[in-house]
Write a structure and sequence with these properties.
mainly beta, 9 strands, globular, 9-stranded antiparallel sheet
Length: 156
């Protein structure tokens, strides 16, 4: 009677397949698509212009950083002194908000950059920016999206 032997090569092959299966599922987890999008905002008295949004995801936590030419700073603004709320349409019917008080230093006349703004997402959430509220030195700018996000909503 002949007994089968398990060789090192066989074990190595099984191990490589197992690692490949784990990596194959791990790389798709937590990815947001697209990770960068653009749109236009109208901020009333403060102006209008384009905005670039960059999104990242780590499990259910997500961040969005934003830079817009719709609002320029009349004076220099120090880092971490802009309070922002970005409201997004969630799955076409609900809303999601991303908030934060993080920004780089903004020179006089420079476009407002804010973020990362933090929020919570679930797998499959589709988010598209609709409005932005920016508060600097007690002055509030309310902005409304005037175009769709391009190339499309963020899908988490």
């Amino acid at each position: 009677m002949r007994h089968g032997r398990l060789s090192f090569g066989s074990l190595l092959g099984v191990g490589v397949m197992a690692v490949g299966a784990v990596l194959g599922t791990a790389t798709g987890a937590g990815a947001v698509t697209p990770d960068t999008a653009t749109l236009s905002f109208n901020c009333g008295f403060f102006g209008s212009g384009s905005a670039t949004l960059n999104a990242t995801q780590d499990g259910t936590a997500a961040t969005i950083s934003l830079s817009t030419s719709a609002i320029t700073s009349p004076i220099s603004v120090g880092a971490n002194s802009v309070a922002s709320t970005l409201t997004l349409t969630k799955n076409g019917t609900d809303t999601a908000t991303f908030t934060g008080r993080s920004n780089p230093a903004i020179p006089a006349g420079g476009p407002v950059s804010t973020g990362p703004l933090t929020g919570t997402v679930a797998v499959g959430d589709s988010l598209e920016a609709k409005s932005l509220k920016v508060v600097v030195f007690g002055i509030t700018a309310n902005c409304t999206a005037t175009s769709a996000q391009s190339p499309g909503p963020f899908v988490f």
